[in-house]
Amino acid sequence: MNDDVAALVPETALLAAAVVGLLAGSWLPRRRQWTVAVLAAAACLTGLAATAVTMATDREQTVFSASFAVDAATGAGRLIVLGALLLILTTSVETVRGHKRESEYYVLLLLSAAGTLAMIGASDLLTLFAGYLLASVPAYALAGFAKDAPATEAAMKYYLMGAVLGTTMLAGITLLYGAGRATVYGELHRTLATAPHAVVALGLVAVLGGLLYKIGTVPAHFWVPDVTDGTSAPVAAYVTTLPKIGGLVAVFRLVHQALPAQTVDWPLLVAVLAAAGMTLGNLAAFFQTSVKRLLAYSAISQVGYLLMAVAVATRSDFAQQALLFYLAAYALTNVAVFSVVTELPHARTLDDYRGLARRRPGLAAVLVVCLLGFVGTPPTGVFLGKLEVFTATVDGGYTWLAALAVANTVASLFYYLRWLAPLFRPVPEDLPAHTHVVLGRWSATAAYTAGTASLALGIAGGATIPLTLGPLLR
Predict the structure, then answer these.
(1) Is the pLDDT of residue 249 over 80?
(2) pLDDT digits (tens, 9 = 90+) for 377-425
(3) DSSP annotation of 471
(4) Residues 6+ apart with CB under 8 A from 96
(5) What pLDDT is attached to residue 465?
(6) Helices and strands (DSSP H and E) totals, the chain
(7) The predicted structure's pLDDT at residue 21
(8) pLDDT at site 473
(9) Is the peptide bond prior to 260 cis by the omega test (within 30 degrees of 0)?
(10) Does 474 score more than 70 pLDDT?
């Protein structure tokens, strides 16, 4: 049994920072609670450094009775999650500065991110569920952090769906354990081959129910628009970014490592879910006027594209690199757009962005790069990510799914242009003077950094794609 604690430095750093931050926040005066944010940022940097060392030395291994895998997917997932969390911490500075629960806000972010990292490396069903709970429960509190009516409603919907689908996921784990007599993925891959196919199929569907809720896609997507719209922009950036990274890598690892091909036709099931997610997300976003709700439905559609790589996880050699690269590009692009929304707290509808290119050209440039990036415009990171995913999908034999994805990509240009067009219109006389007043420099810094990184990722894709390569360990 390999009990190498050093293999879990990123997760340990986040948890240690959360505990120390919670204790320190209880004693620090309100004007100095910002030190917990510095502690959280230090934990992210520590995790990034440890991950870089692990990936550079090729120390791939499974630890703690093969319940957690440290491999290429875990390394890439850690880099994406910790980098995105660092940007979200930066975006959050002005929104929670001086708040009476400022330290608790950062602690909740750290705990939920630690759960996300646990899901990324989980190679055991019980470890996966523990990560699911740790990622979910703090996020419920974050959704209701503002304690006003929209936040309370958002938190209740988020919690109720999470509780129901979490219970469903636990029931699915029970069925898979009963059928395969194990919870470790490697053992399940061997034992489920001779198990009753109906039991395996039912268990898989139940487990997928919880993971689909976590990534926010059809048919467990109903919470996404209400939670995104009801919370603050930094929290919305978090719930539409980090849980999706953990959930998608967890689904990929589960179907790739635990399910033998002859038990159930899971690739077709995931392909249908991908098609439904991208189509419904696009259709629902067409006539949205709220920027947050538009971004919520955009997130649902983006997950549909990402699930395409999961559908061909065992059918294409390009699936893993396509998924991980697209996740990195999506995380940077999504955080950049939400950082702009955070920087303009009074601009809540598409019309409120009229004339932004003249008044705030830097923020308008970030929106142009990122919204066109969501469509898949070169040379952005999402363009290269979509190209990788579409290639892997065709290589895996789902040409019809790739064709549908291309059609959805073209259709999505409509609602992104509905947001972009007002940027370059003249500023109307009846627009309130405070509409384009900025919040501060921190969220703007996060927007510029994430937007530039999204563009650079597309240009330097050849140098970053190798980071996503490597076998998944059982």
Answers:
(1) yes
(2) 999 999 999 999 999 999 999 999 999 999 999 999 999 999 999 999 8
(3) P
(4) 102, 105, 106
(5) 80
(6) 20, 2
(7) 94
(8) 64
(9) no
(10) no
C-alpha–C-alpha distance, residues 339 and 431, integer Å: 22
Structure tokens at 228: 């995104």
Kindly report the length of the chain. 474
In which element (H, E) is residue 228 found? helix 223-230
Query: Residue 376 corresponds to which tokens in the numbers above?
Result: 């898949």
What is the rounded distance in angstroms from the CA atom of residue 87 to the CA atom of residue 237? 10
118 Cβ contact partners less than 8 Å away, ≥ 6 residues apart: 11, 68, 127, 130, 131, 134, 135, 246
* Residue whose token pair is 């955009």: 298
CA distance 344 to 130: 37
Asked whether residue 439 carries a pLDDT value surpassing 70, the answer given is yes
Asked if residues 54 and 153 have their Cβ atoms less than 8 Å apart, the reply is no
| 349, 432 Cβ separation under 8 angstroms | no
Among 166, 342, 147, which Cα is nearest to 155's?
147
Torsion over CA of 465, 468, 470 and 474, rounded to 10 degrees? Answer: -170
Q: Which tokens sit at 472?
A: 């998944």
Q: Phi and psi (nearest 5°) for 290?
A: -80, 130
- Written as six digits, the tokens of 470 are 């490597």
Specify the higher pLDDT residue, 96 or 430. 96
Q: Which residues of 89-116 are buried (b: 16+ CB within 10 A; e: fewer)?
A: bbbbbbbbeeeebbbbbbbbbbbbbbbb
Lookup result for tokens 């019980």: 126
Taking all residues of the chain, what is their mean pLDDT, rounded to a whole number? 93
Domain boundaries, the chain: 5-468
Which candidate, 130, 140, 114, places its Cα nearest to that of 12? 114
Question: What are the distances in angstroms from CA 181 to CA 1, 173, 175?
Answer: 20, 11, 10
Neighbours of 434 (CB within 10 A): 9
Q: Name the one residue in this structure whose structure tokens are 């109906």.
A: 198
Q: Which residues have CB under 8 Å from 107's CB, separation 6+?
A: 18, 21, 22, 25, 36, 138
On whether the CB atoms of residues 467 and 55 are closer than 8 A, the answer is yes
Four-residue CA torsion sign, 126, 469, 49, 379: negative
Amino acid identity at 171: A
Q: Which amino acid is at 342?
A: T
- Residues 54 and 175: their CA atoms lie apart, in Å, by 35
| Those residues with Cβ within 8 angstroms of residue 35's Cβ, 6 or more apart along the chain or in another chain | 24, 28
Residue given tokens 């959930």 in the structure block: 247
CA 78, CA 74: separation in Å to the nearest integer?
6
Strand partners, 153: none
pTM score? 0.95
**Strand, helix or coil for residue 454:** helix
